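Hi R.,

Here's the chain you asked about this morning:
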Amino acid sequence: MEKNKRVYCLYRVSTKGQVEKDDIPMQKQYCREFAESQGWTIIKEFAEKGVSGFKVAAADRDAIQEIRQDAKALLSGMVYCAHCGSKLMLTTSSGRRAKGEPKRETRIRYACHYKIRHPQDCDGQTGYSGEKLDGIVDKIVIRLFERMKTAPRSQLIQKQREKELQLANSSVANLEKLHAATERELESYKKEIIKTINGTGSFGADILGEMIEETRNKLLDLAQELEQAKEKAADLKSSAVAVQKEYDKIMSWADLYAGSSIEGKKMILRQLIDRVNIGKNFEIEVELNISVIQFFDFLHPEGDTCVYYRAS
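And the predicted structure, written out as tokens:
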């Protein structure tokens, strides 16, 4: 797996003068340029205005707490409400405590802010336990990789090669039909020339000439497309290198995932999963990325691209 660092950026101005001049855009520019020069990917940016880094403790700074929440959440930015379609935001909850009780452990939640603002328009829950949802999806992915490991390598690769070849051959067949139809169209225009000369044609000479020229150009373009499609089909027949490379990459994720840190797991999940939809009572739908779904066809032979979970 490629090790591309994923980083957060926090921009802050503390004095009134800095707030009025709005120095944050300049900070963003410098940080983005530096991240690009290092080959880092900025996954989220935070800003604080009028907050002193010296006078205000980290525990009291909302932006820093949000960064900490995001770093702990396995599915940050990937969870959506199955009822209204809104992206769920990370929040924290520590519950109420009686006077004198020690501070309770802060828990992460995925919250549907649309549900909170418009309860009549979303029949889902306002929030879901981050620990529970992360744990369920984590187990789903582990089982997914375990099942993939049991499928013979040659079978998975061959199945994908057959799919790609089928699509390539279908493209060739469609282009051949279109090319043949365009040739017939050109011949019909040529026959129309005689009628035009005799004064019985449906088109004037100028219009007919333009139509013939346009159809000839279309025929040339189709011939080029057809040749390229045939070359692609021939390449797919003779080589499975690209598919094998993709398969090996996914198998490397399978080998690494279970023993990875939370950051390592997040990197793999962002390449594997497109989004996680969650509904009432933790009914979960995990949508896989289109680039990897072909290697998991053994889960849903009918062609579904999702993995489902329903709490028992």
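Residues 67 and 213 are 63 Å apart (CA to CA).

Let me know if you need anything else.
M.
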